[in-house]
Amino acid sequence: MDQSEKYRTFYAKLICTAAKLDDPRIEEAFRSIKREPFAGPGPWWITLGGHSYVQTPDDDPAFLYQNLLLALDHERGINIGQPSAHAMWLGACNVKPAETVLQVGVGSGYYTAILAHLVGAQGRVHAYEIDEAMAARARENLADLPQVELRMQSGAVSDLPQADLIYVCAGAAQPSRSWLDALRTGGRLLFPLAPQGVFGGMLLMTRPDQGAVWPARFVSRAGFIGCVGLQDDETGRRLSAAFATDWAAVRSLRLDGAPDESCWFAGDGWWLSTAEAPVSSDLPGA
């Protein structure tokens, strides 16, 4: 076992333990994917999140295999996100071999590579990155993964590919209609309901076989760089107030009807409810 493999083996166990996750496939994915290409040359800037960055003393790869945020551009606050958080979110998404995943906000491509590992050679990952410099880095880093297609454009446009999972790594004030339309029946959408500057939550929802009431829940709190085109200052202010209440009680996304007494938050044409969605016979586990 070489030094990098030793670091990765410990790191994968560390982050899965931190995520309270017992999933051998996810642990193996984090163990298999080297972080060095995605981090770029050291020394690196790292942070606990919500704290100042600290620069590593040199380019020892041991610094990369920590449960910390790793800066891609520390001046702009663009990071490779905290590994244990992503491990937890990926576990909640139940990514399966041969599925089609759409990822929004790729950065340098580290979690894209993790997703590609989880869907395998028979799967597909459509990866969207709007930042030209980041997209160029990701294209180079992901060049040897034939199941990945990188697109340098917004991931909130119309006519997205149909997907089993949409995994969003950019904060939004509302779910994009294009994401909802792109999901197959039983497909999952995970995105940060967290506009720019708002510490929101990672919302997971599942497309039912019919109807406008989707099972939905917050997996955890989350904060991200904002998704271009999905920002709204007034919604952000109201969401900040909503998250001071019982966010963990949310159980469904409603796309029609007037909000009732179960409403946790109402957006424009959508609302989150603490009431359960009807059980759909076509969904896994129903």
Describe this structure in words.
With 286 residues, this protein is of the alpha/beta class. It has a domain at 1-90. Helices cover 27% and strands 25% of the residues. It has helices at residues 3-18, 24-32, 36-39, 83-93, 110-119, 132-141, 177-182, 233-242, and strands at residues 45-47, 54-55, 69-73, 78-80, 100-104, 124-128, 148-151, 163-168, 183-193, 200-206, 213-222, 252-254, 263-266, 271-273. Helix 1 (3-18) packs antiparallel against helix 2, helix 1 (3-18) packs across helix 4 (83-93) and helix 2 (24-32) crosses helix 5 (110-119). The longest helix has 16 residues, at 3-18. The termini are far apart. Residues 282-286 have low confidence and may be disordered.
The ordered H/E elements are HHHEEEEHEHEHEEHEEEHEEE
Would you tell me the structural class of the helices and strands?
alpha/beta
Q: What strand line-up does the widest sheet have?
A: 7-6-5-8-9-10-11-12-14-13
Largest beta-sheet characterization = 10 strands, mixed
| Approximate strand percentage | 15-25%
Helix count, per DSSP? 8
Overall mean pLDDT score? 92
Shape: globular
Q: Whole-Å distance between the termini?
A: 44 Å
Helix percent band = 25-40%
- Low-confidence runs: 282-286
Q: What integer value in Å does the Rg equal?
A: 19 Å
Please count the beta strands (DSSP E, at least 2 residues each).
14
